[in-house]
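#onboarding

Welcome to the new folks! Below is a worked example of what a typical request in this channel looks like: someone posts a single protein sequence, and someone else replies with the predicted structure as tokens. Don't worry about understanding the tokens yet, we'll cover that in week two.

Example request:
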Amino acid sequence: MNLLFVASECAPFVKTGGLADVIGAVPKALGAQGASVRVLIPAYPALASVVEGAREVLRFDDLFGGPARVVAAHAEGLDMLLLVAPHLYDRAGSIYLGPDGQDWPDNDLRFAALSLAGARVAVDGIEGWQPDVINAHDWQAGLVPAYLRQMDNATPVVMTIHNIAFQGLFDATRLAALGLRSDLFTPEGIEYYGRIGFLKAGLALSDKITTVSPTYAAELLTPEFGMGLEGLLASRQGDLVGILNGIDLDAWNPATDGDLVANYTTEALDGKAANKAEIQSRFALSPGNGPLFCVVSRLTSQKGLDMLLDCLPGLVEQGGRLALLGSGEPGLERAFVEATRQFPGAVGCIIGYDEALSHLLQGGSDAILIPSRFEPCGLTQLYGLRYGTLPVVARTGGLADTVIDANEAALLAGCATGVQFAPVTSTMLGHAIARTCALYAQSDTWTGMMRRAMGHPVGWDLSAAAYLDVYRSALQRQG
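Example response:
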């Protein structure tokens, strides 16, 4: 099967979140199961070295304000198609935000161009290769099925929702600028409460819809989580499938990870202590008699980190320590920096993102805190499982699907891998932290949980097979 992935980012080339990790890993897993996968993303400045050695496979004389071309290259184990359009993508800083921290004002053109290029690859092919199915990811690729309809092309499209909170909404007056026909601007098409909805278009016009965990798929049908699109998704419930994300087992492996000061395995856990000591040094933490918790996250209200601030006194009082790596809302950044002054030696934070440091935090912490108010799937808890860093998670989305709570039944059955809490409140997070500290004090119980967590399947094999089933179903629907 020939598959075209269309997305706005892909690790290791460009990454702002978990979407990039998925796009960088799934094609390899699908390739191992016999599929031929090409990944189309914009050629941001970070990909200049890849573009330099690439070959042109498609050209646009005028793509929303300037010439553009698609080039093909094999890099980092992936068959990449890069949309080279300097007038749209040759910008410093964030791929989504301008220097003022606001969305680039022409983001509608920038990502409509990506969708249009994906549709053109389907129609024209490249070097004798054409996709049997297109997998469009998030709102940035949501217009792929709309452009295909305008081209009278029936290539099946699978739309994947990584986070429905980001929908790509733009003014209806932009319809002509985006090269979209007015007959598509209907409630059954791309119109969403009088605006152009990129994600809405993808959900309405695609053949199948996937999202990144079974629980999140069910949550999306409710007003609490559907973000206004729950009605549309309910009408397409038969086409909606939740498939858990996985992680790259080679990139995330405590036995071989070069970002750790000491490697370790399920059988020989001793190396974890050296990594813990390094974290304590890097974050100016003194040893405590409780667990070392870490946070590796965007600092936003979605991630529930305002609740963690409320719980810090109790965490520290129980002998816990916290090392936080992240950036986001300025108020949360300031609050965690202030917490390091309020709790010297017990709370440390580094504002920003550092991939190598995120590996060290997974390799040396005892537990990772993920108190998200909603979480489509989440990857950090999967990294935590892989590294024996027990996840403490809200019972929502993919967090609920991947972590087995250490309740009495699970402990007796010998299957617990972490701690879950619900409802998602500061009080219940505080209880979860207290439970984690109590479990940590039982060294044999804790070590057993670590080993079970490290053996939990978190790779892509099962999920890749599930994706292939969806692609086959989309093909059969077209047939």
